[in-house]
Design goal:
alpha+beta, Rossmann fold, Serine Threonine Protein Phosphatase 5, Tetratricopeptide repeat, 3 domains, 12 helices
Length: 251
């Protein structure tokens, strides 16, 4: 698959950006905190409709903007598709991600922290495998079935109860009920759910709370760092990235 063009509007740190990747290898270079990862996040959001950082729509919208958009064109062989993702509040005020996806689009971010799939615990390998799109094509499914590690994917998948509780906790956060969301995230984090530990850390992260416009809830650097570290320890890449950002801010 080749991403022929991507356009960002009020996405993360970008007011506007037009990027036309060349075929095969593209290298992004520059100082820290200049938007390289934000661009990669936009590429992933365009193709598969989700952030590899686990971010919510409001968090991916540039500060002060009323909405954000990521659009572009992707190609595979003779097939091409124009995609557009909109991040904006619904009528009830809850921010959501809107737009149609593409069944054959695949994006799997791989960073230095993913070396844990080689030398880390099984949870890290499970997390990496599960980044594959949840609705693979018949061709991709056949290839997956030939791999013994991916044949175990159904066994390793998140239990329905966990999915339900995570969804409920996300809803509570959208409603601004941080205290109740923390209880659910803590319950799941204690059971080893890495995303729950990451989300729990975010409920103590002052920057995240500010971006969500949460009122009456204070951040706690110590608790945030503790749960980010715990999430990173069980394979959550987004937590590892956030720890790096926090460390750079402390320097």
């Amino acid at each position: 698959m080749h991403i022929e063009t991507v356009e960002l509007a009020d996405f993360r740190s970008y007011e506007s950006l037009l990027f036309n990747p060349v075929p095969k290898l593209n290298i992004l270079t520059g100082p820290n905190a200049q938007g390289k990862t934000n661009l990669l996040e936009g590429l992933a959001l365009l193709a598969v409709g989700r952030s590899f950082r686990g971010a919510k729509p409001l968090e991916m919208t540039r500060w002060g903007a009323k909405s954000a958009a990521v659009s572009g064109e992707i190609r595979r062989g003779d097939s091409s598709r124009r995609l557009r993702r909109i991040l904006a509040p619904r009528e009830d005020g809850v921010w959501s991600l809107m737009g149609e996806g593409c069944t054959w689009a695949r994006v799997i971010p791989f960073g230095w922290a993913d070396l844990a799939i080689v030398n880390g615990a099984p949870q890290a390998r499970r997390n990496f495998i599960l980044r594959v799109d949840a609705n693979p094509s018949e061709e991709d499914q056949s290839a997956m079935n030939l791999s013994s590690s991916l044949m175990d994917l159904a066994v390793l998948s998140t239990p329905p109860e966990t999915v339900s509780l995570l969804s409920r906790a996300d809803d509570l956060m959208d409603q601004g009920d941080v205290a109740s969301a923390r209880l659910l995230f803590r319950h799941l984090a204690d059971r080893g759910v890495d995303r729950a530990a990451f989300e729990l850390a975010r409920t103590f992260d002052a920057d995240v709370l500010a971006s969500l416009n949460v009122r009456g809830v204070s951040g706690d650097k110590k608790e945030a760092k503790l749960w980010y570290e715990r999430a990173a320890g069980i394979g959550n890449v987004a937590a590892t990235e956030r720890l790096k950002v926090l460390a750079s801010l402390a320097d």
